């Protein structure tokens, strides 16, 4: 059982973080156009942010200080500024939009890769991993990546802004610009300290939040128990404690942000402004200081500091991204692959003879579930597997369907190793009818056809008719186009079983593998199902797990399994004559058949 | 604005906090007026011959330092007050909701699924706390900063220029509002697309075996890719609208700047204002951007908060149908049980689940109930446990109608082992002493022994301290059932109900548990519902249920003699036992 891990309670080592970071960044490579475009727009935007105050400065120093502005000049500068603003708006739009689209496409790529990867994994993986956690990796964790990449954008935007502001200040007044630069180390220390401190607080907060939601969820699900045992007040008290803990961590986060985020950046800005104005003040005593220069310079000082808040605020997303990334890569790097065929396997099944030769199998490689299974099913013959739950019946099917790799021994089809057939051929020629008939969202047709577009509507109707599923389908409001909701809950298990038969029949497999349903099905449907099974088996090699022994009386070979071994074998008559386990079982069911 | 009124109880409760927060906002706004004015004054002074005198420079810079430090302190103040207030509101509402959940009846939980209730307790509360945080901030910040800045512009610079310059600003609020609405709609579609993606993934994972069987991995992946493509298209719209926010602001503010350049420039040239005043003015304009923009967003915050508040209030307004009588009996229930139900149907179901189920169970006796899935066994227990009160008939415990007891008096007398044996993610020991935390470790172990799970527990890595659930040990169905039995028997309840509680336990263990129960609960009443007849064969009376009615009743021997459904089942199960079907499905 894969243990559920709260990624928030585990701190990931620095090296691994760096690794995950690099790997996540590699997904942006496919969208160079979007990301590159966004960065160009960001650079141009930084340029515009430098240019606009320059326009004002020029206007002030050349036309306002000496009061020489004519109406034309006024309007001209107005128009120039308007044009500049228009450009700025354009750059802003493209910076945000292109980057967002790059992120979107990048994260969807991760989704696609994850999904495709899932289909290469073996059944073992799905046995061990809760479905909910897999789904959450594919959908929620990938979602986090957009914010993660956005951190990069805000860092770059911040960098552009700092550099461009500094360069222009340096050009305007080298000495005074160095005064501003002197604040940079302080700024870096603040950023470093904030990122260190806030990440701790943030992690703590997330941990508490997940604890809170787990408690909430569990209390709702377990409400029956809580109420029956009159534990409402205790559970409420416990919840309140967690609720308070979470509030405390949130307050700590608010305090951290209030102390170290935008207010402190603002304070630094104010102090830098004082330094700059002091320097200009002193200079003005010696030479003339133009109004526009002071205006522009102070604006640049603001541009120098402003993006920092945004950047620091986004740092927490960096952590979210790393955590999500570690979980995503955990799946992408999983090697619990589905069993592979031999390289270059390309044989195709023609007659459908099946042979097991001394096959052993263990799910975990240690505890054997099948021991030394040997039998032959000649083309067109039926081999039935009987035995109680856990005797190994399903395991035989699981290894034959290549859901799991078997251990020692050989499985031959048409006298050739099963691994020599291409997977496509195996899937086409081996038709498995599952015990629980899973239904997909869609309609009846799509549930019979699945994704095989070569199957025509006529074939679907014929298949349904063949297994007598048409009886209930024709009664549905939209017959073959009747909607199937999630899990097919609106159909009875018998009806679902029939659909599942039709699903198999329509692909016309050479070999049929039946896992007979044990579910309670009403007698009328039951007889339809039995008839359906009889029809499907005609002319096909069949390996059947049977619970109703009456259905396999005519089997060519019956294998009685116990604890992974074949303990009896023979035809119905032979086994009855033996008066062994099969005999007992048959007697039991016969009694059952009489009374049911 | 209705939402503020709905939340007024909270603001009243926290009036000091919010008063202080708003005061700090006011102080920030006032202090914020200083730098533009100081810069403007400095500009004018520097433009004089000989520049600015140090004696004039220093006080002005001092003022700036004061403004900087003041801002830091006041910002810290309001952030703590207002964001803290929002967090506290969320917490308060969450507590309320949780306590409400604890009180609600089975009907409530039939109507609302866990996922929905979780969504209310997370998303809706988040939207509401946003009103108390960002909502309050935006409202007051916009008003205060807007007003003070405009006053400063009029006083320190020029009223005509101010009037013209702020003309485009309402447009900012309007645009922010409209974009916000469209974004909200687009976002809802994006959410729907996300759900679809989620459902698709869920379905593929659940149906993985079918997909593998039919070799449709590639096709399923292609289908997923198509859904992803669709998602990208929808998110494109969201990103587009989202990317419009900043440019729109820039453009509208651009108009203001252009007006300032043209008309302000004219005023400077005509000596109506100084150039320093113009510099101040430009600064003031930039501090108006946020408040105006925020007003537009305010409406979205309030709307969402309002809708969420209504949903939560609606939940809180639902009442449990299970009501204690005013003079309810508080003494623990004990004695004979008389169950006389003529008819019971679940709410919103016209078809009766139980019809004419009558039995009397004398104190100390054991009743067995058998029948197929859906025969109505669990329903009998639900009525006994007062999960539903609305039925035709009467149920008595110790000669009193069960409705006459307090819930505490009734339920404390009953130990219930449900079919789905839900366990909590805490330690094994705490799961067993779930109903009475004061039980000691030896008592816990006794209960575990009685339920034949003690040895299993000792095998766990940390024994009784082992965590159960997702983060802890994964238990087999049988272990879960036995823990659930231990949880119910630890208080030696007057009435023990086992609802198909031994289905995953093998025959030997079942016999052991039943044996223990007979010894430990010699004078106590027990009801056992089961599919396996060996669980009930020793009962004083056994009811066979079919479609909600009793079709056979009597002791084991009587029922065998009766040669009906029970006898058939018995023969069948006995044979099964012989064949060695130890592991029952």
TrEMBL record, chain B:
Highest taxon in the source lineage = Bacteria
What InterPro entries does this protein map onto?
AAA+_ATPase (IPR003593), ABC1_TM_dom (IPR011527), ABC1_TM_sf (IPR036640), ABC_transporter-like_ATP-bd (IPR003439), ABC_transporter-like_CS (IPR017871), P-loop_NTPase (IPR027417), Type_1_exporter (IPR039421)
SMART domains, sorted: AAA
Q: One Pfam match, by short name? A: ABC_membrane
Where would you find this protein in the cell?
Answer: Cell membrane
Residue ranges occupied by any ABC transmembrane type-1 domain in the UniProt entry: 20-304
Annotated transmembrane regions: 18-35, 55-74, 131-155, 244-266, 272-295
Q: Does the keyword Iron apply?
A: no
Q: Where is the ABC transporter domain?
A: 337-572
Q: Which GO terms describe its molecular function?
A: ATP binding
Extract the SUPFAM superfamilies matched here: ABC transporter transmembrane region, P-loop containing nucleoside triphosphate hydrolases
Q: Which UniProt keywords apply?
A: ATP-binding, Membrane, Nucleotide-binding, Transmembrane, Transmembrane helix
Q: Work out whether the entry's keyword set contains Lipoprotein.
A: no
Q: How does it sit in the membrane?
A: Multi-pass membrane protein
Q: Check the record and name the Gene3D superfamilies matching this protein.
A: ABC transporter type 1, transmembrane domain (1.20.1560.10), P-loop containing nucleotide triphosphate hydrolases (3.40.50.300)
**Protein name per the record:** ABC transporter ATP-binding protein
Please report the organism this UniProt entry assigns to the protein: Lacticaseibacillus yichunensis
Q: What is the lineage of its organism?
A: Bacteria, Bacillati, Bacillota, Bacilli, Lactobacillales
